[in-house]
Design goal:
The protein is α/β, with parallel strands linked by helices. The protein is built from twelve helices and eight strands. It has an eight-stranded mixed sheet, with helices on both faces.
Amino acid sequence: MLEQFKKGLHKTREAFKGRLDNLFKGKEITPDFYEELEEVLISADVGVATSLKLIDQLREQIQEQKIKEGDAAREKLKTLLVELLQEGGGSELHFPEMPPCVYLILGVNGVGKTTTIAKMAYYYTQKNKKVLLAAGDTFRAAAIDQLSQWSIATGVDLIKHHPGGDPSAVIYDAVNAAVARKSDLLLCDTAGRLHTKSNLLDEIKKMNRTIGKVLPGAPHETLLVLDATTGHNGIAQARLFHEAIPLTGIVLTKLDGTARGGIVIAVKDMTGIPVKLVGTGEKKEDLQPFDPHAFAEALLS
């Protein structure tokens, strides 16, 4: 997993690897150290507020433990990153004891939501789970077609209606089908048209209620897909969706396409929502559970 994170964070690591080595490796802690570290973190899209928070915590530990060497400071920073990313809950996806498990997948158009659902379907079929897909984005015929193609490619069934139909009706049928077919996991796609924000959020609330009525306790995860290359716009999206229905986790796509991989840290710190999955490439295998320890090691090693 560490190697996959290193691969996914290649652009970020290349962008400031030399600066990190100059800052930490074999160096003594000087007054300029914290200012330089702030510049490095902000350049990786960690954000000003989160960067200052981490630096304050690091300064306090360095002073308390009388740390003099940069290498030891680097290890302390790794620990602080892991603690921040694990704060308020872990990154593990929830699976109920009794199937079916239902995940509601949200996200604006263009973030890679449908592709992410396909990658999730592939990931769980490789773990011998019986997966079912629901084409809940009825507003875009292309979304239904895309999910249909992925259902064939991944060998999983799909519940769909005609374009323009009621999304909640699709979800209703899909949850009932998941129960009847003894599926392990149902992945529900949704629309992502932010330009009709109020209608979109109202529809998502209705879909969420529909799932709960058919299967009490579901959805077991409500996941928001964010594009890592959009930086802090993703934080605004997370807050918007979180106000509509409580999000349980974030899926961060296209992490390999940005030199600002620190957005993972900023998203968690600014929203409080844990990152649970990350996309690190175009292949169907390039989606993996988020591991805070592996991420911190890959980022700072």
